Amino acid sequence: MQLFNVQGMSCGHCVKAITQALQAQDPAASVRVDLAAKEVGVESALTVEQVIAAITDEGYEAKVV
């Protein structure tokens, strides 16, 4: 599982937007979001760059932990 630090997440809508964005590119992706820690764990065939791009496209700042 790849871990990403994602700034700007604050609610369930944020979780849903990020999860849907990632699963749109990889329907089999497993996404775990920890709002308190501002972390997103992703188990997917997507590359790190693709995951960061998908999260960034939703309006959040993401980087590898």
From TrEMBL:
One MF term in the entry's GO annotations: metal ion binding
Superkingdom of the source species: Bacteria
Pfam families the UniProt entry points to: HMA
Keyword Calcium carried by entry: no
Protein name: Copper chaperone CopZ
Stretches of the chain forming a coiled coil according to its record: none
Keywords, sorted A to Z: Metal-binding
Gene3D superfamilies documented for this protein: 3.30.70.100
Domain HMA per the UniProt entry, residue ranges: 1-63
